[in-house]
Design goal:
Length: about 350
Amino acid sequence: MAFNPRRAAIRVLLSLPTPVLRGLSGGGAVHVEGRTLDPRLQFLASQARANPPMSSLTPEQARAGSAAGLAALAGALEPGVRSHDLEIPRADAPPIPARAYRTEHQNPSAPLLVFGHFGGGVIGDLETCHQFCGILARIAGCPVLSVDYALAPEHRFPAGLDDMLTAWRWARENAQTFGAPAGHVAIGGDSMGGNFAAVIAQEAKRTGEPAPALQLLIYPAVDLGSESPSMTTHSEDFPLTRDTMDWFMGHYMGPADSPTDPRLSPLLTRDLSGLAPAVVITAGFDPLRDQGEDYARRLKAAGVAVTYRCYDTLCHGFTAFVDVVPAADAACREIATLVRDALGAG
């Protein structure tokens, strides 16, 4: 990995003792509803306040700024994991870029996991969850296929979802290429990627296709019109504010689209029975926390096997902070272990 002065400076700052970090953040610990924000995330949030809000940027500017910020936080790929870029072919459109991750100790019975990154359907690319996909591959023992789906507003709903569906269906036909059993494929993602994963699990039921081996939903956006308490309590939280969410949806949804459409808000689907087993993850300091928890509860009530975890000290997007926030690193490794256990691949 090339030397990045900004990355080096962030690591030095985040290695400071907790009292110093809180002082540099402008005050004491942040306590909300019995939860305490991780001091390193508190410091990163204080630094982010100097940046213009995403809603003041064009999508192109937001993508460039996000990519630069994530590059400053990124670490090396997991030992023993290799990745390579590829293209998923389509008969009637350009191929979809993707990246495969495989570990040297891959479990031959584990399914291929198709994964969608966060970014509100507007920002993000194959670098967004690069390190986390490596963690999934190594600890869960499964190959991972990260998908560079189309972004809005150039490609509004359902373009990104359709790309993920195409990738998932292609993966079912080509799982053996990645050392996985034929037709054995899981689906996952974080934030908007989690939205896609939840919708695809429901789509499989609607169309009569084989269900995914697992749906991995990390702080998923499953109700785009949600007005739950966490949407208010954490409306100004780093890095996902209510203003940013409105900006995302203003670009992602078209004029005729409604957040009550279950293909936009899978939480609103009435019958959740018969869906794929789920691992659902939320963060304590996240406006999406309640809807993720509600979805896990409804899945369980419908008879779906569900593993649910809320990481109380963390914020939305913590999969990007693995290399600089120890609590995020620990959470991501536990998530990969939960995936391994849910797949019976331990």
